[in-house]
Automatic annotation (TrEMBL), chains A, B:
InterPro entries: Aminotransferase_I/II_large (IPR004839), Class-I_PLP-dep_aminotransf (IPR050859), PyrdxlP-dep_Trfase (IPR015424), PyrdxlP-dep_Trfase_major (IPR015421), PyrdxlP-dep_Trfase_small (IPR015422)
GO biological process: alpha-amino acid metabolic process
Name of the protein this chain belongs to: Aminotransferase class I/II-fold pyridoxal phosphate-dependent enzyme
Upper classification of the organism: Bacteria, Bacillati, Actinomycetota, Actinomycetes, Kitasatosporales
Record-linked Gene3D superfamilies: Aspartate Aminotransferase, domain 1, Type I PLP-dependent aspartate aminotransferase-like (Major domain)
Domain of life of the native organism: Bacteria
The protein's required cofactors: pyridoxal 5'-phosphate
CDD domains referenced in this protein's UniProt entry, alphabetically: AAT_like
Pfam families per the UniProt record, alphabetical: Aminotran_1_2
Domain Aminotransferase class I/classII large: 54-399
Keywords, sorted A to Z: Aminotransferase, Pyridoxal phosphate, Transferase
PANTHER family linked: AMINOTRANSFERASE, KYNURENINE_ALPHA-AMINOADIPATE AMINOTRANSFERASE, MITOCHONDRIAL
Gene Ontology molecular functions: pyridoxal phosphate binding; transaminase activity
Length: 414, 414
């Protein structure tokens, strides 16, 4: 990610099909002021807070598990049909801290390992690495997860004296693959998790952005055995600048004194030693945004959902027009989200990205960082999120010229 | 800390001489709006940003090392006489994340240990524990640090095959001891650090609040050999609710490829896997506050400094009036900050705190959590920061009744 940012900084004229960041065109700093005021009104009107309590809530040290946990629980109920106990929610400094807390809590010693559906988001594997927690890659494939491979890996790890604790995955429009796991496989995953006694760490930043039709229920909404820890990001649905995310962890775990305690409370204890609490000011902005839309982020993002849908269509259609079959350039057809994976007839390296930026002024993301043991890869990721439709067309024009030029160097023409 | 918060929650009528949190009486939510606008103006006027760039800076993902690093560097120059390279500063989610990043970076394996001047802030020892990094306690004593004991511990650790990497300390008005390390000992500490090849982790949340006279130069301001990593908190000088702090780490370390890189850049790499970046919205509030006062937090906190000075005087004078010598209750006389340590003729336990809250409606902090291996302790910490002067008097009245009642149970009267 640092390399991508560095390249983007060096070639400011390059159009980005690389960035997975949300579109900025709808942003307005005045929204921050308005959302803050809305949340303060809520504290006064709905919670009966005095001015002193309002000030304290926003400006003083605060509750480790956060101050918008109840509004997030309502969002999960309204948008995802989840029956979330607010006390099982820890508001975190983005998804990233949520995952870090979860992994730190699950890792007791060197025998604890993480499984991750591959290709996997680099923030997830990076957090595990920082905690000296080995990551065992589980095959993804066209269905989003190869459940036989998952079981094989769980049993192989146990056979080697290790403890496979959890499997990290993005069921909805994964980063980078764009793939959505179908409903029957979701049920099968939950069966496996229960039977094999592992947790599923469900990361869901893109679920609100399907290409068409219905959204699928999250793993957590289908979870009857507390097998799923749900990791929420608000970066794509509120603002990345709040750095607010959350973990919903309703598992009961031993408290070390013969009783049991929520996993969320364990996470909070760890959090108190890493960031103390998530900025209540930033939480207040998120709270205000939720309140403005009856706690529905689906409603709050109606305009964004249309924008991303059109972008993804433009990306797919644009590829089809520029690389008509038969052609050695192919790509997948995600049902939503931001990403498309493109296969090309040459090896995709960081150096090639730099050349694409320099000579063709277009950025994309090599796929190898999303694999733990990178061999030579002939794949890359395109994203539709950062550019408006015309920008996508212009970027694809440049991308097509780049791909043809690079392929021609190997004598490949079509 | 959790136990303290729980007790405070259960006895809302209790007056708190326990909380080390800053005084809330000067807070105003409108300050947040004003500081945000001020920072946006700065981006437009001083950095020449377009509206699009302003929006992006506040609301989008951002620079891992932060967006107010330059303003913090100016603050360190204006208020502390430090010549800080902005690129050596990482803006963090409070002091706590800054320390966590530093310790994670210093810890390579089980042989790396931390030294900490004792009694030590629980957030520091807690972070080390979370990283499985043993903490070797160095005696504090009336001068704030026993340098002979420090050298002894460094050599003993090395003799045992361990790597003492750094010593954590609060040179100015430490938590909980209130003690300030005098200038000659500061120079001696820097000599030891250079000679023995360890880092000093200087935590400075209270330095702007001396009781009288001049402030002393920070260790970092005296550091000519890059022996000091400076950990900044803004919770006491801006708002805790921003959760913004920073690390200044100008050391050069090997980059693994034969070159060298700033320690700050190592910290940033770790940060990218824990919190990605510190909320730019929260940073903008801090930035606005700094800009309002020419980047001087000393000027920004002129009113607060007077308030805390009066509070500390009221606390010391109030103790003297209520426990005139000769008396088995004694206390130290810090030169500033928030805290006084009181010695009492009975053992101070968590249960006793609960009783004090229930029967006498006054809160204080037992000292045993600030020691790594708690034996029975006859000391507690009083803080002047949360209450206005009249509240301190009322709380001390209750405290004196409590202490006399408890001592009388052991037949101790004076």
């Amino acid at each position: 990610m640092n390399f991508l940012n560095e390249i983007a900084g060096r070639y400011p004229g390059a159009l980005s099909l690389a960035a997975g960041a949300p579109y900025e065109g709808f942003y307005d700093v005045e929204d921050v002021h308005r959302c803050l005021r809305r949340f303060c009104e809520h504290l006064r009107a709905d919670r009966g807070y005095s001015e002193e309590q309002v000030r304290r809530t926003l400006l003083q040290y605060g509750r480790t598990k956060g101050i918008v946990h109840d509004l997030i629980a309502r969002h999960l109920s309204v948008d995802e049909g989840m029956d979330a106990d607010p006390e099982s929610i820890v508001v975190t400094v983005g998804f990233q801290e949520g995952l870090f807390l979860t992994l730190r809590t699950l890792r007791r010693d060197a025998r604890d390992v993480l499984l991750a559906v591959t290709p996997a988001y680099v923030g997830a594997t990076g957090a595990a690495r920082l905690l000296d927690m080995p990551v065992h890659p589980v095959a993804g494939g066209p269905g989003g997860v190869d459940t036989d491979d998952l079981v094989r890996h769980i049993r192989a790890a146990r056979g080697a004296g290790l403890r496979p604790r959890a499997c990290y995955l993005v069921p909805d429009f994964a980063n980078p693959s764009g793939v959505r796991i179908p409903l029957d496989l979701r049920h099968e995953l939950l069966d496996i998790a229960r039977r094999e006694d592992i947790l599923l760490l469900e990361d869901n930043p893109y679920g609100l952005f399907p290409l068409k039709g219905e959204r699928l229920p999250t793993l957590k909404a289908l979870d009857t055995a507390r097998s799923v820890v749900y990791l929420g990001s608000l970066s794509k649905t509120v603002f990345p600048g709040t750095r607010v995310g959350y973990v919903m962890a309703d598992q009961l775990v031993a408290d070390g004194a013969g009783g049991s305690v929520r996993l969320a409370d364990h996470l909070a204890r760890v959090k108190s030693m890493i960031t103390v609490n998530t900025s209540p000011l930033a939480q207040a902005v998120v709270g205000g945004r939720l309140l403005e839309h009856g706690c529905s982020l689906e409603r709050a993002n109606a305009r964004e959902a249309v924008f991303y849908r059109r972008g993804l269509e433009r990306l797919s259609d644009g590829l089809a027009r520029r690389f008509p079959a038969p052609c050695p350039v192919t790509w997948n057809a995600p049902d939503g989200g931001f990403f498309v994976v493109v296969s090309v007839p040459f090896e995709v390296t960081d150096a090639l990205l730099e050349r694409s930026a320099r000579e063709h002024r277009v950025l994309w993301t090599p796929l190898h960082p999303f694999y733990d043991s990178p061999g030579p890869m002939r794949q890359l990721r395109l994203s539709c999120s950062a550019l408006p439709p015309d920008g996508i067309d212009e970027a694809l024009d440049r991308f097509a010229v780049f791909v043809r030029a690079r392929a021609a160097e190997d004598g490949i023409r079509w």
